[in-house]
Amino acid sequence: MGVVELFPEAAADKAAAKPDRLVIRRPDDWHIHLRDGAMLRAVLPYTAAQFARGIIMPNLVPPVTNVDAASAYRARILAALPDGVPFTPLMTCYLTDATSPDEIERGFAERVWIAAKLYPAGATTNSHAGVTDLAKIAPVLERMERIGMPLLIHGEVTDPEVDIFDREAVFMEQKLLPLLARHQGLKVTVEHATTAEILDVVRAHAPRVAATITPHHLVINRTHIFQGGLRPHLYCLPVAKRERHRLALRKAATSGEDCFFLGTDTAPHVRGAKEASCGCAGVFCGPTALQTYVQVFHEEGALENFEAFASLNGPRFHGLEPNADTVTLERRENRVAESVAVDETAVVVFRGDETLPWGIGG
Ligand SMILES: O=C1C[C@@H](C(=O)O)NC(=O)N1
Predict the structure, then answer these.
(1) What is the CATH number of the domain that holds 76?
(2) ipTM of this predicted complex?
């Protein structure tokens, strides 16, 4: 399988005469899937090598729906860290129709979790236990609004009649806008934004609403998924959209606006689960995330805004201090391994087996 031709911008050599080195506060990743067991041990070192903190998604099987499960999962993550590597997992609660407002408040007050995650039931991987009707979690959302706890949203409708490329747009119209009107004090992150229109909704409701943007949605559009054949490792949810949306995402991410920040949605699945007759959604971008983001900022001539996107806007939204230490990004070619081993199989890396123009320095 050949390498997909990404980065048309690089070919235009828009990068000429721009800096080759950047020192920024250490970034955080506001959207991570780490899984559990052998997969957790295999993928965590890559995230921890890049990021100081990360919001950990709760879509395990069974999902992380209560305080005890979140505490236990956090302990397993900390135990899986390589010796001497600091990384702070920021836990989340998986909302279901049965979530109790008191449990939500307890976990937040005890600092076990930092936010709650809304998966519309059936929207994506391991979301079948998610919320079937927003009305069912109205008391939970009211409590979250009152205590200042952010809601992280997978913003897609699940109606099989709705075209898959329209599911974010329909969610925005039918669910998100009414929810924002009903809960005018609720802090919301629209996760992995993929459409130009939702970016404008986020802007209009900032600063209490923000969006995370993944590295892959800055690089691929929907045509890349079918370039020369089906590319299962580029399939994720929300699925990449038309080129005009990718360009809008690049503009938003690199703009310096406070309401946009880094969230990779790194989502590992073993090779056999991706290269299958019915492959799983998820792009494993953890090992190449920062290199990809900085390349995009470089191409857009916006390196001066990279620290805000990667290291400042997220902590500000979540009421945390930025990290004190720094990371150096350098324009020097580096080869990426095609995959990461997990037990007897492997997870294919986004942009694996490529030579990347930017690397992480000392
Ligand atoms: O929302 C999600 C979930 C994720 C996963 O694999 O858990 N994969 C995705 O592509 N999107």
Answers:
(1) 3.20.20.140
(2) 0.97
